[in-house]
Fold:
Amino acid sequence: MVLNMPRRKTKHKTGLPRIKGIGIKVHDAWIGYVCIDCDKLNLFSIGSILLNPEETYLNAEWKCKKCGYLHSKISALPFKEWPSEYTDPDSIKCQRFWQAFFRIATENKEAYWKQCNACGRILPANAFSRHQGWGLLEKQMECRSCKGAINAYLNPRRTKQQLHEANLKRRVGDLLLEGENERIDINALFKRFNGKCFKTGVKLRKIERKSWAIDHILPSSCLYPLTTENAALLSKEANNNKRTKWPSHFYTNSELIRLARITGADLSLLSRKDPIVNPNINVNKCVTRYLKVRERSNLSKHIKELKKLLEDYGLVVSISAKNKKLLGYKK
Ligand SMILES: [Zn+2]
Ligand SMILES: [Zn+2]
Structure:
């Protein structure tokens, strides 16, 4: 039964505060209707059980908060221009009106209203995206407007497609760089960064391995290996936001300066506006190693991905005739 479904753990990772106080009951459904006498929008919560349209028609007495008009099958319709055979509650025409009136507000999940957990507004169901199997209305906690802002925070300027490509480049980059990466001395790393997340300042505990991550400052997707100079200590959450981003797209100017001081990295490179592929990497050596490597589950897919990266970065010219041939390039 839906009512007893376990609540999703609400991790605070949206960048927006959740509404505090008595708290918003994220599964509650609301009735929203416009008063037929004064046009005021009336909203009230009905908790977590949806109404049956026919029972609502038979029993409901919804009183307008502004003008006091009672929305009920016993009320006469207030439309001045209508003949009395339509407005008289004893008439079948008037009863059909009420039946449909209550049906509109209760007929299915989309008919209800819901309160947004971020902006606090009560909005019609279609202002929320679907969250299958979650709660009575199967809608997300935040309205689509707030969700838009949250997504921009979590994923600025990137579309799904761009993200997919970035992840693919990182995957290929990681494989190409195997053998170039240095072993990072974790104790020294914690010491350099005072045991704190460089981005958020949150204190990190070395033994809680899942709570922190080593940021590849200059990303492996641009073929920068992991070295002491290229490693920053971040909380897991900060690192999830950094992902494959170029340092100046994630760190502020003063953070970049501090970071260069701590790691000894090249500030002019870190602060570049646009990403640049590592000019010092020996691409041919990396490709040779990539092609030598043990059994890969899907060789043809890996080759295709590798070729895409080499072409996107204009690196085909940097590889040897032998490797070009292996990858199927005509001379
Ligand atoms: Zn009213
Ligand atoms: Zn909202």
About this structure: Strands lie at 29-34, 41-47, 62-63, 70-71, 113-115, 122-124, 212-216, 231-235. Residues 116, 118-119, 121, 142-143, 145-146 surround zinc ion (ligand 2) (CB under 6 Å).
